[in-house]
Write a structure and sequence with these properties.
Blueprint (H helix, E strand, L loop, with lengths): L1 E2 L24 E8 L9 E5 L5 E6 L5 E6 L2 E8 L6 E7 L4 E2 L2 E2 L15
């Protein structure tokens, strides 16, 4: 399995996949973990786009911050966002045999907003 240039060394896999209704051709898999700088798991959404800005894959992390994203092989922009954290965008190369890539999110300095029922 290929490893892209990530910011951490430990990886595990879980959850989600390619967007429904989109043909990903020969799908490849990008796995990794989203954490804070001190290693705490982050509940995040990850979106992969091609060079034209078209979404080619989307995933959510599990309770341990792990994700599995299915997309067509090649270079993609991986956008990661989570409440209470600054979003991060990184270029990754998704290999046919699979690629692992961790993302570290910094705090946004603002508390996460919680929706209020009925609003």
């Amino acid at each position: 399995m290929q490893t892209s240039s990530g910011t951490n060394g430990a990886f595990s896999t879980a959850g989600a996949g390619a967007p429904r209704g989109r043909d990903t051709g020969s799908a490849a898999v990008l796995t990794g973990r989203v954490t804070t700088p001190d290693g705490r798991a982050v509940g995040a959404t990850l979106t992969a786009t091609d060079s034209g800005g078209t979404q080619i894959g989307r995933a959510r992390t599990d309770a341990e911050g792990s994700f599995t994203l299915r997309a067509r092989p090649g270079t993609a922009l991986l956008i990661c966002s989570a409440p209470g954290h600054a979003p991060r965008a990184e270029t990754v190369t998704i290999g046919v045999g699979g690629t692992r890539h961790d993302v570290v999110l910094e705090s946004s300095g603002r508390p996460a907003r919680t929706p209020v029922a009925g609003s």
